[in-house]
Amino acid sequence: MDLTLLIFFLVYLAMGLGSLPGFRVGRTGAAVIGGMAMLAVGSITPQQAWNAIDYSTMGMLFGLMVVSAAFVVSGFYGWLAQKAASSNISERALLAVLIIVGGVMSAFLTNDVVAVSMCPLLLSITMARGLNPVPFLLGFCFAANAGASGTIIGSPQNIIAAQKLNLSFAGVSEITVVPALLSLGVIWVVITLLYRNRWKLAKPQDTPNPQAAAPPPPPFSLGETLKAAVTAIVVVGAFVFSDWPRETVALTAAGFLLLSRRVSSKSLLQEVDGDLILLIMGLFVVNAGLAATGLPQKLVTGLAAEGIDLNSPAMLFLISSVVSDLVGNNPAVMMLVPYLHAHGDANYLGAALSLGTHFSSNLVVFGSLAGIIMVEQAKDRGVIISGAEFSKAGALVTVATMLIAGLWLLI
Hints:
Order of helices and strands: HHHHHHHHHHHHHHHHHHHH
Number of strands: 0
Structural class: mainly alpha
Mean pLDDT: 85
Largest sheet: none
Radius of gyration: 21 Å
Distance between the termini: 43 Å
Strand content: under 5%
């Protein structure tokens, strides 16, 4: 048990810090190594490891990633970014447009994929206009996290929770959509106040290295965009109005999009976040190794005896928000979901988990993959967003949106 606990601790330490101290091992590497270590020390058998990887969750996640990738390859993301950022509107109006775009797109196309696709475009377009890219990147990132809370397909952690708790698409959105929409307005107000005198690049030397400019987006194809849009609408419709297994729906949609005479399957698959898929698979095995010790079950029982019930929506909302800012929102959900058993309204419990993990994740960079993606891609192109600057805006956004969500859940 000691080795199992040590492996678990080191893996989630890497989840929180972004790397394993003393080694060049990132989050994905730590999850994969942790899973293999659980096998090596006998914490879990090979068959148990395979069984721990929830195929329905992985299938749904992969299928939705391909659907989102179709919008990237069709040039839709690039076209949308160009239209939003190149129009002759004020900085405040531009920020509002990007926040709405980020929130709405993330609700249906998974926030991490949207962040990966849009960040380089936003950097190039804002800098071409002589604008300080930081407020626009922060606004888009916060909106991507907040908007993703509105549906069960808005983020990988929502997909995981939806499959484990058998959540209803419409049932969860009925609860989460109002705070998700209100949060977009909060984000705009906070960013506007904090950066009201810093919309422009202050000096020529502040302009990032032009050699680090983002590659041009794929050319816009109306036909491929319509194909992707119709597919996405059919998928959402099937989630809402049918009893078909969600993973089957998502994988069928992915197969339809991959079978094309105009777009190569390779170009679509290149946009799928393989690192994230490996990270989630590794964490499934690591969590199963710990569960085999019986310690988590004892801990949950002990907490319940002290009046801390994970299956209480209000308590889950608070606990999940804290854990998200310690290890990241995806690992947090994977850590908590196995011990959730909704006795009443499962959708209410799922909504509390979604709102807690998404809204709190704007507090720190490593609270979400979207935050990490934005900061790292900006750094690669010479735009530095420090943890302090991220959290200065993120703290205000987090406090305000958590209050809104908490009050809404109570109502």
